[in-house]
Design goal:
The protein has 422 residues and is α/β, with parallel strands linked by helices. The protein is built from 14 helices and 18 strands. It folds into two domains: 111 residues, Urease, subunit C, domain 1 (Roll); 292 residues, Metal-dependent hydrolases (TIM Barrel, Alpha-Beta Barrel), CATH 3.20.20.140. Helix 5 packs parallel to helix 6 and helix 8 crosses helix 11. The two termini are 19 Å apart.
Length: 422
């Protein structure tokens, strides 16, 4: 496997022409769950036409062509649980925590670049340090930095001493008024959504996964205030009891869901509350070793793995919408592929299957983000956010390991056939 984060691949980016016709491809329709030979006309960063090679060439006139050599052309991947400023306990985390303002901005920009080169054309950031994510989002939009489209929560909201406190990526609040003010603070900074920590988690040494951390009044203040401002709310949450209370208050999405029950998953399905399971975080010992994560955290994480999968399967059985999110850096090379692909392999093998898994990493997240009219599938009028690989990801999720070509907004940013030494 080629390293999608290798600096040499920066040299493959080429100026975007007015348009290009992508030919010699199998076009993956994630909505229908099918793939078929076809061509795609990309013009001014968007998809202008789809169809057979002859049909598209006729519509595109003298627009130049780009052969994909028989590759399967799919929508760019969307990662719904991303932290470009992630600083876990351990040696690597201490390094990230010690970066100054300029250092963390460069660190996060590098993560965004590497994510895009790995085939991730959109991310949802769910708690980043000091609102650098909002600045980075704007820089990417202006073309000053290379990276995915970003939807971001700004800082996550926590109680005093709550999950993730003290990292700069969270804002400590206590009481309904303070949590309502916290929501408004993130929206003022430019947040697209709100993230709140309603229970303990894996990375908190002085808490447990099942530790409840907010009162009903505090959760209600977050959800009602965010909804009044037109923002969805997602919650870091482990135990079923806390999740049930939040769902009844109108929660839009659950992160992790380590300890769900059939009753709570049924409620989530009825309420339209999505789940981003992040299965990879309870089965990533190699990643923890690489970062120097302490033993107590490794034991808590890996020890939760079996129950985590049981919860995920309960959610599938209940009909809960599941969406792809890696938590660990989505571009990270891990077990022979990127973390996002490894997460998708877990989701597929533990019951979702390859078609629904690809939907959970493309059109499903796009709809949740309110961007389904712009991205998430290959349709006329949508952004040309595309990836190509040599085998069909609808048949086997592992075929995503072969991503070798990436386009964002009509610009080819990665093409392994043209990789050259920098």
């Amino acid at each position: 496997m080629s390293d999608p984060t290798d600096l040499r691949l920066v040299a493959t980016a080429r100026p975007r022409p007015t348009g290009v016709v992508l030919v010699d491809a199998h076009v993956v329709d994630v909505v229908a769950g099918t793939s078929a030979p076809g061509a795609v006309w990309v013009r001014d960063g968007a998809i202008a036409a789809l169809g057979s090679r002859d049909e598209v060439r006729a519509a595109a006139g003298d627009t130049p062509t780009e052969s994909l050599d028989g590759a399967y052309l799919a929508p760019g991947l969307i990662n719904m649980h991303t932290h470009f400023s992630l600083a876990l306990p351990g040696e690597r985390g201490r390094y990230v925590t010690g970066l100054d303002d300029a250092g963390i901005a460069l660190h996060m920009a590098d993560g965004a670049r590497r994510a895009l080169l790995a085939g991730i054309t959109t991310v949802r950031c769910v708690a980043e340090r000091d609102h650098v994510d909002i600045t980075l989002r704007q820089a990417i939009r202006r073309g000053e930095a290379l990276g995915p489209d970003m939807f971001t929560a700004g800082q996550g909201l926590v109680c005093t001493g709550g999950h993730g406190h003290g990292s700069g990526s969270t804002l400590e609040c206590d009481g309904p008024d303070a949590f309502a003010r916290g929501v408004r603070t993130q929206i003022k900074a430019g947040a697209d959504l709100i993230k709140v920590m309603i229970s303990g988690g894996i990375a908190g040494e002085h808490e447990g996964i099942a530790t409840p951390q907010l009162t009903d009044a505090e959760m209600a203040a977050v959800i009602s205030t965010a909804h009044a401002w037109g923002r969805k709310v997602t919650a870091h949450a482990g135990p079923a009891e806390v999740i049930e209370r939040a769902v009844r208050l109108g929660l839009d999405c659950v992160e992790h869901g380590y300890e769900l029950t059939p009753e709570v998953t049924a409620l989530m399905a009825e309420s339209g509350t999505a789940l981003v399971p992040t299965l990879v975080v309870t089965r990533c010992g190699e990643f923890f070793d690489e970062l120097g994560v302490p033993r107590w955290m490794q034991e808590r994480s890996l020890g939760a793995g079996e129950r985590h999968v049981q919860s995920y399967r309960m959610a599938l059985d209940a009909g809960v919408e599941v969406l792809v999110g890696s938590d660990m850096p989505p571009f990270w090379l891990f077990e022979g592929t990127s973390a996002i692909v490894r997460e998708m392999e877990h989701m597929s093998s533990f019951g979702l299957g390859p078609v629904a898994t690809l939907q959970a990493g493309t059109i499903g997240p796009a709809r949740w983000l309110g961007a389904g009219d712009r991205t998430g599938s290959i349709e006329v009028g949508k952004q040309a956010d595309l990836v190509a690989m040599d085998r069909d990801p609808l048949r086997d999720t592992a075929h995503l390991r072969g991503i070798r070509w990436v386009m964002k907004h009509g610009e080819i940013v990665r093409d392994d056939r043209r990789a050259v030494a920098a």
